[in-house]
Design goal:
Blueprint: E1 5-16, E2 26-32, E3 55-58, H1 59-67, E4 77-81, H2 92-100, E5 109-114, H3 121-126, E6 129-132, H4 149-160, E7 167-170, E8 173-174, H5 180-189, E9 200-207, H6 220-230, H7 234-239, E10 242-245, H8 247-251
Parallel strand pairs: 2-4, 4-5, 5-6, 6-7, 7-9, 8-9, 9-10
Antiparallel strand pairs: 1-2, 1-3
Helix pairs in contact: 1-2, 4-5
Length: 254
């Protein structure tokens, strides 16, 4: 059986999840290098190219490194992020090794963050929560441009067909009024999502900014203005389950 090694930018924690549905949850992060997008406002641009990896580790080595950070098993939430973890065909091995740390504990929760641009079966088969974060015009993806809503829906539908007990969160970033048409188009396209097993499905809008670097926190006035803009849009208010700031930027959590 082939032994696969994965490009690692960092394995860190325990800290809190800084954005999306699980803001504040104690978490250990595993950041893989390598991404198919090229976003000008990426908050971890060093993770775009796999060649920038600090080290290459097997899934078992990654799990052992993560285990040390769980405070004796108290932290049971793991986030595999990037980059885009989906570009790594065999990264489901990481999920399997993490579960071995808690063989009889159903509270272990593995959360994978992806753009939804590249489908690979392990995401649907191995992750407990899949966060799909499509990029609108504000993120300035120089490769794809704004991610087509119909492609996002196609990705989500493929995930939801696998089996039950999956949670899918669609988490676009909102950086200003230039993103409003994109958000509305995404919400309209989401009507085409097929959810045969009744999986948990949410739309969480992440408040972004024009500051790409983690640790450079937008001032409260900027976030307030973004919220005020969205509060004038009934279509968006009706569809969004949450509208949340990017806490990780303010705290300097990568």
């Amino acid at each position: 059986m082939a032994v696969h090694k994965f490009p690692i930018m960092e394995i860190f924690g325990p800290t809190i999840q800084g954005e999306g549905e699980y803001v504040g949850l104690p978490t250990v992060f595993i950041r893989l290098a390598g991404c198919d997008s090229r976003c000008a406002l990426c908050d971890t641009p060093e993770s775009i190219h796999a060649s920038n990896a600090k080290e290459f580790l097997t899934a078992k080595e990654i799990a052992k490194r993560a285990e040390v950070l769980t405070i004796g098993g108290a932290v049971k939430h793991f986030v595999i992020t990037g980059g885009n973890p989906a570009v790594h065909e065999h990264a489901g091995e990481i999920c399997k090794e993490l579960r071995k740390l808690y063989p009889a504990d159903r509270d272990v929760w593995i959360h994978v963050e992806t753009q939804g641009t590249f489908f690979t079966p392990w995401i649907a088969e191995e992750a407990d929560c899949i966060v799909v974060s499509p990029k609108g015009p504000g993120m300035q993806d120089e490769h794809y441009g704004p991610h087509k809503p119909e492609n996002v829906v196609q990705f989500v539908n493929r995930v939801l067909q696998v089996h039950r007990h999956k949670e899918v969160i669609i988490k676009p970033v909102y950086t200003g009024t230039h993103d409003l048409p994109y958000l509305k188009g995404l919400i309209k396209a989401m009507q085409g999502i097929k959810n045969p097993h009744g999986n948990w499905l949410e739309l969480v809008i992440s408040l972004g900014d024009n500051i790409p670097n983690v640790g450079e926190c937008p001032n409260p006035g900027e976030y307030k203005e973004l919220v005020n803009q969205l509060m004038e849009e009934p279509v968006i208010i009706a569809a969004a389950n949450r509208i949340l700031p990017q806490v990780h930027k303010c705290l300097g959590i990568a």
